[in-house]
Backbone:
């Protein structure tokens, strides 16, 4: 998912931040997102999970309510 997310950002020359979080290191996130990894979030709002959804991220970003996108996954699974 992270590769697709970076490609998306480059394709549209966007400058939003991408924070990658290892869910195994954040016990508070495990009950919320553990069965949906990888998951793409903006704060607590889910954009997509399992697979990168270009259309969902496009709708989200161009709605004008984001500063950062967070990719959540366990170790070595995002790529």
Residues:
């Amino acid at each position: 998912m992270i590769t697709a997310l970076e490609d998306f950002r480059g394709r549209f020359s966007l400058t939003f931040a991408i924070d990658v979080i290892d869910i195994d290191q954040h016990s508070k996130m495990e009950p919320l997102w553990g069965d949906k990894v990888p998951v793409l979030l903006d704060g607590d709002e889910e954009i997509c999970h399992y697979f990168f959804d270009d259309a969902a991220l496009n709708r989200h970003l161009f709605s004008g309510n984001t500063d950062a996108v967070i990719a959540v996954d366990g170790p070595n699974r995002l790529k």
